[in-house]
Design a protein that fits this description.
Blueprint lengths: L2 E3 L6 E3 L7 H20 L5 H8 L3 H10 L8 E5 L6 E2 L6 H24 L9 H11 L1
Antiparallel strand pairs: 1-2, 3-4
Length: 139
């Protein structure tokens, strides 16, 4: 088990893949609910307005957008693709950059799978199963 400091309050907590301690996570969920409810009632509100009305910092609202928990109606300069800088509505990357990333990941996966399939039992490497079979043949 790994122990880390909470990114928000700096308290120690047992890390489980989430960068916040349970107390901060609960608090962030409450903030998200406030923002979400406000946006249902005021769908045309801008980030500054939402922040002032709910008391949630703009930085946290932007984090909700980056996580994909919220989505803007139209692309904005407030939220840009981390790869190309193009305005987006939610997440970290635009659709085009996500497609490029997906293609490169698939290409890398296919290349590594091909390398594994190219391994032959009679190559210079001795595999454990081959070693055991040869040992039994000698006996």
């Amino acid at each position: 088990m790994e122990i880390r400091n909470c990114k928000r309050c700096n308290r120690l907590f047992q890390y489980n893949g989430i960068k916040y301690c349970p107390a901060c996570l609960t608090e962030l969920d409450e903030m998200y609910k406030k923002v979400r409810d406000y946006l249902y009632e005021h769908p045309d509100a801008v980030i500054v307005e939402v922040s002032e009305a709910t008391g949630v910092e703009e930085k946290i609202i932007l984090e909700f957008l980056r996580e994909g928990r919220l989505e803007l109606k139209e692309p904005s300069l407030v939220l840009t693709c981390e790869r190309c800088g193009k305005p987006i509505t939610t997440g970290r990357m635009c659709k085009e950059c996500l497609a490029v990333l997906e293609r490169s990941l698939k290409k890398g996966f296919n290349e590594s799978a091909r390398r594994v399939s190219d391994l032959k039992p009679d190559s210079r490497r001795i595999h454990v199963a081959d070693y055991i079979i040869k040992k039994k043949e000698r006996e």
